[in-house]
Amino acid sequence: MATPLDPNYRARLQALGDMFAASIPTRMAAIADALAAAGMSPDRAKLETLHHALHTVAGSAGSFGFTVLGEQARRLEQAVRGVMDGGPGWQLLVPEIQHYLDWARNDARNTAFPAHD
Questions:
Q1: Distance CA 115, CA 61 (A)
Q2: Is the pLDDT of residue 111 over 80?
Q3: Ranges for the HPt domain (predicted)?
Q4: CB 19 within 8 Å of CB 31
Q5: Taking residues 22-38, what's their average pLDDT?
Q6: What is the pTM for the complete model shown?
Q7: Residue 3 scores a pLDDT above 70
Q8: How big is the CA angle at 21 (ends 32 and 4), to the nearest 5 degrees?
Q9: Burial 1-27 (b: 16+ CB within 10 A, else e)
């Protein structure tokens, strides 16, 4: 295995991971706020805000060791995209997003995501 040129590489990577971990409550709040604003009959702009909030987690979580958090955000992001593109399912998607938020608030490092009832 190659040694990074920067002798502080691991410490810097750990610091970035810690910063990401500290940002999770804010990121989950952004998703929750976007979900609340979307309501039960969202317009495209509100769905785009929710999509963006999920996308930011999906795009970075795995890089910092939050693999399942990122995978679930990606799954939900794609489902929101489907609704944005005219697909059905918003009424079923709302409780799934809430389930994700509840799970992430409890233990975002968890490597198992429980099925939603």
A1: 20
A2: yes
A3: 18-102
A4: no
A5: 97
A6: 0.89
A7: no
A8: 140
A9: eeeeeeeeeeeeeeeeeeebeeebeeb
